[in-house]
Amino acid sequence: MKKIDALILKSFLGPYILSFFVAEFVLVMQFMWKYIDEILGKGFSMLDILELVFYYGLMIVPMALPISILIASVMVFGNLAEKYEMPAMKSAGISLMRIMAPGIVLAMFTFAFSVFASNYLKPVASFQFKKRFEVIRKQKSSLLIEEKVFNEDFDDFVIRVQKKYPNDVDMKEVIMYDQSRPDRTLLNMIKSDSARMFTDSSGRYFVMDLINGNIYQEEPKKRNENGKTSYPLVRTAFGTYHKVLDMSEFTFDKGNLDINRNKEDMLNTFQLMDAIDSLNYKQSEQEKRLNYDYHDLLKVNPDPAYLYKVLNSKVDKSDDGIAENDTIASIIPKSTNAKIDTVQNASLVPDALLKSARDAIVPITATQVNVGIIQKSLQDLSIYKSFRETLDPESSKKVLSRASSIISSRIELAVNVGADRLEFSRMREMYYLRLFQQYSFGFICIVFLFIGAPLGSIIRKGGYGYPFLIAILFYMVFIITTIMGEKLTKNQTYSGFEGAWISTFILAPIAIYVTYKAQKDAKFEALKNAITVIKQFFIKVFSSKNKKKAIENIPSK
Fold first, then answer.
1. Which residue among 233, 404, 443, 526 has the highest number of C-beta atoms inside a 10 angstrom radius?
2. What residues does each domain of the chain span?
3. From 16-20, 40-44, 248-252, the region with the lowest mean pLDDT
């Protein structure tokens, strides 16, 4: 490795690693800020929350890598240009692409690591994260009874305490509403002057010892014999009432979780391709259901009683001495050691029985059956205006009735198949979206290198000032276009390929343009003018505020 490559690569590593962890921290904090209310106050330890954050951090590795390479490239090449090291290299005959070679190698390694993370780290981390996150979301908050607040943590009871003593055991003026009855419109209330609360040794039951109170139970209204309606109310006074509440609902069983392992976020490339093939196969099987032979419409459905009569008339019961109750099983010699092979023992069946069975299989014509489709003479078709005129009125009704029922069933089937096809298409495009995103997130790292390095050499600013601002702006474009692509794919406006690569389609031309300008040592006058206008705007705003404060601080005479 040449010294120039070692210098640039060494300059890359520090900002690259630091930017990666900063991006991870920001994205994790975004998640925590969004779901903090669903995580805290449910009795989970700090270790459980850290485990959840760890798996979420692994999930977002492919999203954090692009901004790492972008910030590092802008900072490194901005520092080189600011210290005139970049012009010195160019004056020595080293091209910009040669200077960027170590960064390109690092971007290629970043691409490979992003693909690895998307295929092996993210699916496992996504499953573990969703499993733990669902446990936290479905877990009820830990029991907390406050003064003058209706507590609804229990499914069938609402508790209100007027005053709670500092020992967290004794309470004053307690009201409990029992909602376990089917009809919740009926009053069922317990009211006591004081109470003591505690949990049993196992922690499964919450116990309240109510002292000096009444139980009010409203009964369903009744109609008396004289036609008047009464509203019964039962009041029971007590000195001490022992109320036990089950706390099992505050513990969530992880075994009841049903996490779909086939969701697109939890599959790698090969699993996604298998899932797409399965969807294509299911769709082809659904479409085969629409194939129908409409020649069956004119098939004759013979009367089973008539077929039985024809079959019996073909069997000769007098010849060859075959009795009426004889069967094939009684004619073939019995064997207790082996099963009967009908092919090997076919010669044992009498010829008369075979002949009568063959003769019984005859085509059934419409003239033999009373229920069939009978057509008129078709020798001269010119005398008929339509197919219906070739049928007699009774047969025409049968054909129309059967056609109507078949069409209704086929329409219903077509509607169901159409709905399934839309769902299959949506799922397939989502699978394609995740499949292509596993590679587009890695490829955008290379694109960001060709944006950050030329911009850094053009603006000639290092550190965390302008480079960080420019990196954030381009990363915002990447995030916005990625989210937009996912939404449009879910709405089936874009295909999975377009939704995954839309950010690359937008940012790649910018990368090509700024790289070309940097190679030509062009100056972005428009960019500089825009930065100057923004700086002057903020200077005016802050200077006007300072003047206003100075005027306000002048003592009045």
1. 443
2. 157-251, 302-371
3. 248-252
